[in-house]
Amino acid sequence: MALIVQKYGGTSVSNPERIKNVVRRVAKFKALGHQIVVVVSAMSGETNRLIALAKEMQAYPDPRELDTVVSTGEQVTIGLVSMGLMQAGLKAKSYTGAQVRILTDSAFTKARILSIDEQNISNDLANGYVIVVAGFQGIDQTGNITTLGRGGSDTTGVAIAAALHADECQIYTDVDGVYTTDPRLVPEARRLKTITFEEMLEMASLGSKVLQIRAVEFAGKYKVKLRVLSSFEEDCEGTLITFEENNKMEQAIISGIAFNRDEAKITVRGVPDKPGIAYQILGPISEANVDVDMIIQNLGVDGSTDFSFTVHRNEFDKAMEILKNKVQGHIGALSVVGDNKTAKVSVVGVGMRSHVGIASKMFRSLAEEGINIQMISTSEIKISVVIDEKYLELAVRVLHKVFDLDQEPA
Ligand code: ASP
Ligand code: MG
């Protein structure tokens, strides 16, 4: 007997038929003698619908009230799933975040989980119930309803699994696992049987949308065994996110190619090459709550240098305005130029640690296609480049091929 947390995304519960499908799978696991906690998202499209409604009332919805509204999507699905389970003859019980007492901080719309009271759930599980928990939501110290950020049900699933010391956390979604890259871009993309937790974290941070980044972080921190599977296929094994690298020995050096179309590049030209400049440029940017991704500063020539960084495309105008109006004159820079038609492509693989020449292979392959690299950043297990957005597809396809991801590893 195992304790399994199964998280179902919005497409898996988008109508009664699909909810019945979820019920059938839960019943199957239950029949095998397992204890099951189900965590669900709102029906697909529902959270967007609720956000749009809120915006009709208030141009910038009050964050507390917005959470009150958007958290309702999940309350509907937990009730429906529980009814379905009962109809199938199982004992079932729904819990909102507040009913569990998923305690979060008070950062509305992006709250972080602080603790989970697992006592009631554990008792109900021991009494044979299937527990159905609302994803994406919690409650703060003063009793306000909070939400965890878009895609936050993944994090709820992992956090519940951690709190209950579950044997496995299964994330059911509309893809059947983690792929070497997005199959919509590269038809040859393959499902990975395993991926290490570190690689998954890089993939998620680099734009792969399979799992919410925070969920992956959480899983890493609490060593939750995570598996991504399709909710529309029977008996698929999905992708297991592992903590060991030893089973990677026979595999490709590179596990995947991630990409992100949302990257915009900004360069501050001719900044004085002296202490404090990076802070004076990026301080006002971070004060405005704009996230900065890659940062590059050139070596100074004649006492001045160029300073480049990337931000999310949505925040490009805001960042440009801050730099032009508040920073440029203040630090005596020559000019501020930007390009919001850029994209980031990354190769990810723990094999990089033990193999040399990955970067040069990547750069050569891009050069052979005439693709100019505008920025480069690396970590121990990934190399990212910023390129012109119009070459994104070509770059991803080429890299997928040269790193042998088109074929099953020998
Ligand atoms: N319903 C929320 C959203 O659409 C949470 C989730 O689906 O994970 O972002
Ligand atoms: Mg989701």
CATH architecture name of the largest domain: 3-Layer(aba) Sandwich
Structural class: alpha/beta
CATH topology descriptor of the largest domain: Carbamate kinase
What name goes with the CATH superfamily of the largest domain?
Acetylglutamate kinase-like
Q: What Rg, in angstroms, do the CA atoms define? A: 23 Å
State the helix count.
13
The 3D shape can be described as globular
Give the number of DSSP strands. 20
Oligomer: single chain
Bound molecules: aspartic acid, magnesium ion
The main sheet comes to: 8 strands, mixed
Poorly predicted regions are none
Strand order of the largest sheet: 3-6-2-1-9-11-12-10
Helix content: 25-40%
Question: What's the CATH first level of the largest domain?
Answer: Alpha Beta
Overall pLDDT confidence? 93
Which helices and strands appear, and what pairs or packs with what?
Blueprint: E1 3-8, H1 16-31, E2 35-40, H2 46-57, H3 63-70, H4 72-87, E3 92-95, H5 97-100, E4 102-104, E5 113-116, H6 119-126, E6 130-134, E7 137-139, E8 145-147, H7 153-164, E9 168-173, E10 194-196, H8 197-205, H9 213-221, E11 226-230, E12 239-242, E13 256-260, E14 263-272, H10 277-287, E15 292-297, E16 304-312, H11 316-331, E17 335-339, E18 342-348, H12 358-368, E19 375-379, E20 382-388, H13 392-402
Parallel strand pairs: 1-2, 1-9, 2-6, 3-6, 9-11, 10-12
Antiparallel strand pairs: 4-5, 7-8, 11-12, 13-18, 14-16, 14-17, 15-16, 18-20, 19-20
This protein binds aspartic acid (ASP) and magnesium ion.
Aspartic acid (ASP) binds next to helix 7.
